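This part of the workshop introduces the protein records we will be handling. An example says more than a description, so a record of this kind follows.
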Amino acid sequence: MNRKKIFSVLLASALTVTSTTSTFAKTMTNPQIPVTPIVSTNTTTGAAITKNSETEKSVKISKEKAKEIAKGTMKTYFNTEIDESKFTQTSNFNTSNYNGKQISSWNINWQMNNMEKTININVTLNAETGEVTQVNNYQRKINEENAVPTMTAKEAQKISDDFVSKIQPKKYNESNKKDYNNLGNHGSPNYNFTYVNKVNGIEFDGNNINIEVDGASGKVVSYYSNWNEDFKFPEVKGMIDSKTAVEAFKTEAKMTLKYMAFTQEYMYYENKRTVKPVYVPEFNKGNVLDAKDGKFMDPFSNGNIPVIKNLNDKEKADFYNKSKVVTTREKAIEEEEARTIIKNFINNVYGQGYAIEGLGYQEYTENLGSSSNKTWNAYFNKGDASKYNEGGNISIDALTGDILSINRNSNEDYNGTAKFQAKLSWEEAYTKAIEAVAKYYPGIVKQIKTEQPRYKYNAYDKMGERTYYFNFSRLENGIEFNDNSINVAFSAVTGEMSNLNCNWDKNIKFPDIKNVISKKNVSETMFSKYKPVLVYTQINKSDNPEKPELEIKLAYKLSDANGMYDYTNIDALTGKFLNYGGENIDQNIELFKEKIKGSKAEKELSILASKGLIETGDFKLDKKITQIDLIKMLVNARGYTPYMADKTADLKFSNIVKSDVNYKYLQLAVSYGIMENSDGEFIGDKLVTREELAKILVKYTNYSKLAQHSELFKINYKDAANISKDNVGYVAIAEAFRFIQIENNEFKPKENTTMEQLAIGVYHALNNVRNTQY
């Protein structure tokens, strides 16, 4: 029985649901932010006003011809006819310098916004050749929810392949496909594919095509081609062999032990961070190995290897001897004392004559990863009209009086293009920065990494090096923790401090490092996964940004078996590879695929896993699902947004306190209508029955008001008598929407739900959510 029939019968005040399962689906799209044009224009309907008019007249492709090409592209490749009477249309003419060559392009945009839907179509094409380089075609129905895909990554890949082979057949045949969809992409039903140029059988990722497929509608919604036909590629000969390359990488790779803070998944709103000791692979000379001469290089540095500046042993001892115990008060300092501290600092650093304004106290519920959650903040400026730009803002810790941040501008700084005579060198600024750290932060000087890199200044920058920046990282147990630091900046123009910032979380707990694995073992782990692969890479031999000297070289880069060149950090305690969230990367995704092969939920499980909604590491099809398992999956799928929880009433459960790790999950479950905010206990490890799953998923899709009218429903299962009377409507709707699978005309309401059953239910629920928030 399909959805249309369900509602037609409901309108007649009667609904009969049999044991027959039917098929229906809802098509949804994911709204995206349109690409911002390089040159802004005035928006008009039909004809747009463009800039760069003189250059525009000299290009081969006129504005009208560009519109014609854009319309033809949309019709031929995106099956979309443009009726300009229904759209707001803009045309932008853009010029840019790419690799020393001026590139002119047209950007044609059509937009539609009404009560039913929004459409944004954007086409960019080369103004000399007419080649279309980018298309975005995003459409969204008003009040429509994001969905999980209705197709697998493999099915989307076929759509992507067909599209590229049609729009760029030659380039398609000269490419290798990259599929990054196993990385997890929360909140989007879309799939992304990259086609990397292959020359002489070797990849060159400087030429690539990127495709985005809407996983719900099956439509290509984004196309981008970055391809240069003018490159000359060296012959594949005279190279060092792969064995030599492996040894070179092993020798050059420095496995550096560091502390890193990872924000728990979906917890960035609350700053719930976990610190782990990790090994970070570092390559001082660059992470690309020249396949000809066996030397390492950095394609992005133009040979700008930094010189390291540090204190000598005596200077470092003197620096650490300035350490003092700083007392933290129980209560915040009063306004007058705060004003005195701020005024004294400004007078000592910048001199007399500054007025302090807007002094105010702020207190946050959490310290947000910084030094304090209690602060005094103010603005300061010169009263003299000729010094109107001289001033800034300052913030101090209300419990210690320490400077948290100060930013100060001057008239000289605003005149950024004027020539100037530097009043201090970088080395002199380093000395001043070290003195400032010791003077203003005596309580933490022993935890400061004094080493600083000095990069060669670009002599072709006509503005000159106006500001010197220093970042002093935190050390714990002798290990660097980059998330906390003191930043100091000095103006070369005035010789004065322009910025001072202390980001230092005193509440972070650092794990012991006694049991970290050895650097030798972590190196073996690293190179068991990543191997040198021969590639073509582009380097710029010139340090003059106006006159680049580009060259294509044969080189070795580290890559895993999936063609991923970005290597990851390694947990120093477990030896496991970590993702950006600090979680273990599943190295056995193929094992997961093998486990679900042949399952009646294979498609659903594959899709949910690709979107990061299922843990694949220790996956079991027959795992019994608990209440908290179900709630977390549904909340994560809909979107874990704690700011929404802040608008929700406090939970009434007697056994759940606000500090509970699942508190906001439960609040959002209440907000999404998944559960009631009722008295009593919440038993998170209680197993979910099939009847309970049906009820929760119907609530989740916002059909509970219909389900409550049980008199409208009739069920004919063999075990219908075992279904609670109040749940008859929920069960009937759950089957109609395919949330629950029926076999042998038995619902089995009291059986516990398995992961396999849950995947089917959640997948169909996500594609049938009714948006009732508007």
In short: Residues 63-78 form the longest helix (16 residues). Residues 496 and 747 are 76 Å apart (CA to CA).
